[in-house]
Amino acid sequence: MSDHLTAVAETTKLARVLGITDPTELDFLVDLPPAAIRAYRERVTDRLFDRDTKRLKGIAAASKIVPVALSAKMAERAFGPVLCAAVASAVEPQRAVEIAKNLSPAFLAECAVQLDPRRTADIIAAVPPTMVTDVARELLSRGDHITMGRFVHVVPEPALRAAAPVMSDPDLLRIGFLLEDKSAIDNVLHIVADRVAGIIRSAYDQNMWAEGIDLLDSIAPHNRAWIGDITAGLGGDVLDALITAVAELDAWATLLPITSAMSEHNLRLFAERPVVHDETILAAIMDAALDGGQWVNLLPLASHLPTEQLAFIATRVADQTDERLRELIDQAHTAGLWSALIPLAQALEPQARARVAERARELGLDDDAGELELLAAL
Predict the structure, then answer these.
(1) Is the CB of residue 151 less than 8 Å from the CB of residue 193?
(2) Quick one: which of 51, 47, 44 has its CA closest to 26?
(3) Distance of alpha carbon 339 from alpha carbon 333, whole angstroms
């Protein structure tokens, strides 16, 4: 699921480079590895920027002997945004910023669309926060989240803080989806921490669950608990819509790590949602748990499910081979989840319970308090 959404984001950015106005024209590429699409996009960009390297360096050199105000006037009136963007990487960063200060936000926004952040990171880092805010406002007025997303990771925190207020919650969600460097998402969330609830709610209000789920997939593990609790606190309607979207996108590998980090209270709220109790949903959850490496993230949720649904999950567990049962028990032990495993084990039929007890003994954990508790419960 994550690769699919990443591929969608990459084709959206590739469409911009190729001058394609409707990114869905590139939907035939979304089954390719996202890294391959990105590599192609970067090669295309390199070809565009490198084809006139000698001439561009000459223009950059000439700009050094022309007064800043005159350079700015020539840039806006004679060169245009495409040529200015191409020349920018050859101009000394501080000089480039001084010229930019004499340009209109509208023209700077047009230049930003053409810039390659790999080549101009030093320039972007030196741009004053007020200019970043003005350009951000201009780009957002055009609905250009692609350019915003491509530069977030090279914009210093003071400038991001200054620009954040001009971005709506849906803007932030869309920009997060299109980030060039997904590791920047945690810094952005730190800056707009008081708006996270609104950002997640905008996924519900604007039917932007692909972007919302991508956000949950991109955050670092240490952010899962508080963001998961905020999500659960938005109410049953939001949770139901999220669960439905996750099911449609087969994104349980994204959501289960979030639910496992929730507080007991909020995890119980999640487990009580009727949509979770649907057997189709439970079957998909179990597929992610047993085949997708999410077993230890399922256990906290399973322990809060009603008896009937817990029995459904227990039946899937009982179908596993003895070797697989040993693996599942060992994973629960390693993760310190004996207490979450016990309700599930107790929901097994007697014969299956005996198998679980025997597999636990085979692991040689007889002096482990958790295992003793499990064996006693069985």
Answers:
(1) no
(2) 44
(3) 10
Tell me the C-alpha distance between 266 and 227, whole Å. Answer: 11
- What 8-state DSSP symbol labels residue 89? T
Cβ-based neighbour number of residue 194 at 10 Å: 7
Half-sphere exposure of 279 (CA within 13 A, CB side): 6
Helix (H, G, I), strand (E, B) or coil at 113: helix
Q: Is 156 helix (H, G, I), strand (E, B) or coil?
A: coil
CA distances from 47 to 42, 132, 258 (A): 9, 28, 41
Q: What is the pLDDT along the chain (378 residues), one digit of tens a residue?
A: 568 888 999 999 999 888 898 999 999 999 999 999 999 999 988 887 666 555 555 555 555 556 666 666 766 776 777 777 777 777 788 888 888 888 899 999 998 988 888 888 888 999 999 999 999 999 999 999 999 999 999 999 999 999 999 999 999 999 999 999 999 999 999 999 999 999 999 999 999 999 999 999 999 999 999 999 999 999 999 999 999 999 999 999 999 999 999 999 999 999 999 999 999 999 999 999 999 999 999 999 998 999 999 999 999 999 999 999 999 999 998 898 888 888 888 888 888 888 888 888 888 765 565 555 665 555
Alpha-carbon distance of 82 to 76, in angstroms, equals 11
Q: Which of 46, 207, 44, 14 is nearest to 118 (CA)?
A: 46
Spatial distance between the Cα atoms of 313 and 43, rounded to a whole number of angstroms: 48
Distance CA 199, CA 2 (A): 19
In this prediction the pTM is 0.85
For residues 69 and 105, what is the distance between their CA atoms, to the nearest angstrom? 16
Residues with Cβ < 8 Å from 127, sequence gap 6 or more? Answer: 97, 100, 155, 159
Sign of the torsion angle spanned by Cα atoms 368, 374, 377, 378: negative
* Residue in 75, 18, 20, 82 with CA at minimum distance from that of residue 49: 82
Distance CA 9, CA 3 (A): 10
What does the alpha-carbon distance between residue 88 and residue 85 come to, in Å, rounded to a whole number? 5
d(CA 99, CA 274): 60
